[in-house]
Amino acid sequence: MKRISYIDILKFFGVFFLLYEHAGNWCIFEGAYNSIKVWICSFHMPLFFVAYGMACSGKSIFLYDKGLCKSILEFINRRFSSLLVPYMIWSLLYTTDFSVVFLKGVLYGSNQSLYDAHTYQVLWFFPTFFLSTLLFQIVIELSLRFKHDHLVYLIYSFVCGSASYLLSVNRGDWGRWFGFDIAFTGVVYMIIGIYARKVFDYLLNRKKYILLCVLPVFIPLGWLIARNNILEGFNTYIMAWAVYGDSYTMGILSASLSIFGVLSVCAILRKIGFLSFLGRNSMTIICLHRLIFPFSIPFSVLHFTNDMLIPFVNTIISIIVSVPIILFFNRYCPAIVGKRDKAV
């Protein structure tokens, strides 16, 4: 399937915001940074689910000429190779404890269980995203079999959102297995991605001025809603813990507005190939930055003093350092980053 540059750039912004926000977790920043952190956390992980929905072909996986079982297994195998294989590899690379607790924590696959497994907690995203892609394919199949596909998407979004909301109550110390409750919310964002693709393809072909004049306004709107929707007891949003704000619906709305605003910027920058390259390899940067931060953070703190500038510089350094490693992985060991073929 042909790559869509502005969707790849959206993923670049997702990983950029993730690194910027994570840098603040390594240093204690206050004031303006905290306001930016709340906004970023309200949408930077949902962004990846929206991007998947935008890039999804929308085709059925039931290839009758191959046999139903074989076609389904091929689909699951592709998702397993691209998400769960790197999840297991990086869990092993990051751990300091190969005990039974580590094994249980990795097999459970939640943010909290990975903490107890003494490995990298951000890896929760991989198993949760894996479940979301499987659940999302169900609605794709349903939409292809019914005439009123918009109604199917609406009902499925409501069912998934309700399931996520109900399952997020009394999650326990380790949350749900593979972030199952979070995966349902991921499906809601993937469905939003389907419509985001339709909107932006239309605007790029006919109404480009809207990208410049209207949609960027969605960013301050998303920020405003996010600031006023923080759940009591938390000072930010944490998708890894199923914390979407005081109102689940407003949390979805604020994230969607911010993502649409960022998408307008991505559409404008869509011809910048380097940003597209970084977006295509965003998963690799997510895995790598925990190794780079112990060196990039001290450098940034030493040479800069502004709480807004330090995480920004650190993010730029981390991304630049990641580039040669990305090229090496893509060429010599693509499986470690969820790719089947050697490619740059």
Along the chain, the helix and strand elements come as: HHHHHHHHHHHHHHH
Low-confidence stretches: none
| Class of secondary structure makeup | mainly alpha
Number of domains: 1
Residues in helix, %: over 70%
Give the tally of β-strands.
0
Beta content comes to under 5%
CA radius of gyration: 20 Å
How widely separated are the two ends?
16 Å
Sheet with the most strands, sense and barrel status: none
Mean pLDDT: 90
CA-based shape: globular
Please report the number of helical segments: 15
Describe it for me?
- It contains 15 helices and no strands.
- The radius of gyration is 20 Å and the shape is globular.
- It has one domain (5-292).
- Helices cover 70% and strands 0% of the residues.
- α7 (125-145) crosses α9.
Secondary-structure topology with pairs:
Elements: H1 5-26, H2 32-41, H3 46-55, H4 68-94, H5 100-108, H6 111-116, H7 125-145, H8 149-167, H9 180-206, H10 208-213, H11 218-227, H12 248-268, H13 273-280, H14 282-303, H15 309-332
Helix pairs in contact: 1-2, 1-3, 1-12, 1-13, 1-14, 1-15, 2-11, 3-9, 4-7, 7-8, 7-9, 8-9, 9-12, 11-12, 14-15
Task: Supply the key terms.
single chain, mainly alpha
